[in-house]
Amino acid sequence: MIYRLWQELKEGWADIIGLIYPHTCAGCGQNLVKGEQEICLACLLEIPQTNFHRDSQNLVWQLFRGRVSIAMAASYVYFDKGGKVQSILHSIKYKGNQNLARQLGMLYGHILKQDHALEEVDYFIPIPLHPLKLKQRGYNQSEVWGEGLASSTGIYLLNNNLYRTENTASQTRKSRIGRWENVKDIFALKRPEEIQGKNVVLLDDVVTTGSTLESAAQCLLDSGASKVGILTLACAVKI
Ligand SMILES: [Zn+2]
User: Fold this and answer.
1) Quick one: CA torsion of 207, 211, 217, 221, rounded to 10 degrees?
2) Could you tell me the pTM of the whole model?
3) What residues does each domain of the chain span?
4) pLDDT tens digit string along 120-144?
5) What is the distance in A from the centroid of ligand 1 to the CA of 89?
6) How many angstroms is it from 25 CA to the middle of ligand 1?
7) Are residues 187 and 111 in contact, defined by beta-carbon separation less than 8 angstroms?
């Protein structure tokens, strides 16, 4: 009885707080209703899913062909400049919305599990941020997204082995070759023995040119991983 009263008081209080500080959707900015967290149901249904995991030679896999040997590659959604996915990524990366990253990871994990897309994967490995950036932001968005993926797939998130050896300059204004020179050998493993013969999947928030992921994948293969796959939240690959 007391517990129920407490629950009702708590919910009532949450509703009042919601009126004063409305919790809004990270995709469309509309107020969220009860049961919705960080993103509204309409946005969840509307975000453009790629379903790349059902096509082994999809756009992301093709991006790495001839560059580094990738066992599988997929992205949850297509990046839409100025659209909902961009707002969602912005919220995850710059507004501290870790709950949203986790929630989207969990949802994508369910889809991948249902479609048997991650059979025999030993570890998820998020692309690490440079320590300085991590300190500024307070969290690694790819790792938080990975927590969600790990919770719904049961695959272990190995987040303290791969690391960045140096801080790379901003990549936005560099050519593809320039970018590759910039990210070559920027990753290393603290305990290479941990991934010997393992089937690992790299996680990143967005794939654009793929040069960072390529460098990390090469590092893992050179260190003895048997297979390396790639998963990203969004795909911004230009055709
Ligand atoms: Zn929305």
Assistant:
1) 160
2) 0.86
3) 1-46, 47-235
4) 999 999 999 988 899 999 999 999 9
5) 13
6) 5
7) no
